């Protein structure tokens, strides 16, 4: 076997996992700007921005957490800086 099997499965709107990751990464600078300007962004605002695509939404939150943001929890559904 020459290479690993990269499962190519289409998710919502026909995107693969790799395409979804790239899209989530490309949306994060806009979310970060909004967090820095307003102090926070609500989960519902992110969900609306990603057109209710759950995979993109979850990846976006994952990448924001990786970049040092507090993504909240079900009681506090908002993303903000840890310093806030």
Q: Low-confidence parts, pLDDT < 50 over ≥5 residues?
A: none
Alpha carbon gap, first and last residue = 51 Å
Fraction of residues in helices?
40-55%
Radius of gyration: 15 Å
Outline the biggest β-sheet: 3 strands, antiparallel
Strand content: 5-15%
**Based on helices, strands and strand pairing, what is the structural class?**
mainly alpha
Mean model confidence by pLDDT: 87
H and E string = HEHHEE
The helix count comes to: 3
- Per DSSP E runs of 2 or more residues, the count of β-strands stands at 3
Largest sheet, spatial ordering of strands: 1-3-2
Shape: elongated
How would you describe the overall organization of this protein?
- This protein has 84 residues and is mainly alpha-helical.
- It has three helices and three strands.
- The longest helix is centred in the first third of the chain and has 22 residues.
- The model has no long low-confidence stretch (mean pLDDT 87).
């Amino acid at each position: 076997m020459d290479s690993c099997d990269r499962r190519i499965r289409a998710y919502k709107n026909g995107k693969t996992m790799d395409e979804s990751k790239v899209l989530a990464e490309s949306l994060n600078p806009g979310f970060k700007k909004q967090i820095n300007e307003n102090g926070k962004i609500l989960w519902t605002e992110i969900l609306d921005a990603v057109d209710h695509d759950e995979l993109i939404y979850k990846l976006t939150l994952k990448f924001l957490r990786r970049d040092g943001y507090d993504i909240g929890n079900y009681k506090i559904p908002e993303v903000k800086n840890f310093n806030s």
